[in-house]
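pls read this stuff:
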Amino acid sequence: MIWAGPMLAGTVQIFRRRFYQVLRKTVSYSVTSTLNHLHSFSGSFIYRQVPFKLGLQGSRPILAGAPGSLPLDSKLLPELMKKDGYRTHLVGKWHLGFETIRHTPVMRGFDTFTGFYNGMQDYYTHTTSGFDTVNGTGGYDMRRDYVDTDGNPHIDNILWGANRTYNNYVFTDEAIKIIADHHTNYEESPLFLVMSYPNPHSPIQVPEEFVKFQENSHIENSYRKTYAGLVYSMDSSVANITGALKEKDMFDDTIVIFISDNGGSLTTVHQSVVHPTGSSNYPLRGDKATLWEAGSRVPAFMFGRNIPKGKTIDAMVHITDIYPTLNSYLNLDMDSQSRDILDGSDQSKLFKMESEETAHEYFIYDIDPVYKQAAIRYGKWKLILGDPAANEVNGRYQPLKKNQSSYEDAGLPMKDYVEKAYRLIGMYKQSSKHTAMCRTVDCLYPEGTKEKVKLFDLSVDEYEFQDLASRHPDTVKQLLGILDKEMQEMIPPVNLLDQGVQAASPDHFNGTWMPWMKDDEP
């Protein structure tokens, strides 16, 4: 989700009626740090550690048909909730790996999973293809996996009938069915439902009815208006799901958390042609997949009983906080081992407005030993090592104006967006060749390369204009010391392949994406 769009981010260019109605009854967050890529976000959301401790660091996605999943020794949030009697369901996007059955959602704590395994798909045909697959091989990726009453997983229930149906319709209908079934058959059990919407991820596809939404009629640029339609289609889905909860008298007992995975991407590649998405993170600097604020600062809100209504918090909140905060709200049975490896903090006092202070002293944006980049937030200070954008976009880009097909910068150097997109593809193809991994700050920051460290005071410079590293050497030394300590717990990245392996080709599985390795294969 983009920064220059939702109303809680301070702009009303993209109107979201249902979210606005909910926002008046929520605590919303104008400074929330997620991760700069979906797989990193998902791993940290349903687990409790930052990506570099899971092997999911960097802006390299888990590619279709490529091994490299969330480690199996990680006990996930749905597993914890299931142990406490919750019925658990995931609808939408997984993107945490599926090389074996044990890596699929229904073996990671979810009773059912309706959606797609990979990181993206065609919104209508539900196929995944392109440069990030097995030599461009496409495959159908829409299923309803489930665990039966004996605990056996079923992952061969392919939803062929969903072909040509817009995936948001599929996901909304499934969520409404889950709510109705829960009310009828599991009323005594609590419900945990995760809606992992692909919107507004590329490809930029949406039914015309959402593009013509009247509150967005003032948007003149066609790319921007289509992007707004993608957001509105999600808004409409949220309205239908909350309506189903209200119909079953479940809404008043529900905690709703809305949060995005990363900042908006400015470009998309479709059939080898680069297009602007219509997204904008303005006035934040950067793009999705960068360590600039635009890569990870997103709007969020929380609604539910004992949560004050209509309040806004401007504080450090990180995606890893969801796990311990929900544990506090719901009094889940978290074992001592899980508590010992928490990277997130319990923010329940902040959310209840019992405190104005964040529970964080600092958090790590990411540490990537391949591209030799890292970033840390400590109070008002943000330190970046290496190239924050890994040679991608570094500027601040306003929403597209009428008839524009390329972004204009707002005061900082901009690289051509076509060049950026193809460089990104090239980086995927080269990443597997990097074998010497940096595991210390000295490696990321060798002596004599002071230009590789940047320091910003986000309390007065949230748009990252003024590098203060030379003026505050003691602060730089302190934050580098914290990074060095944190890097001792880093594990090597698992997502280094530039394409899928041949054994994973959908050609072996009736044209569908399926686990291709046995559970005991290394």
Q: What stands out?
A: The radius of gyration is 22 Å. The CA atoms of residues 307 and 351 lie 7 Å apart.
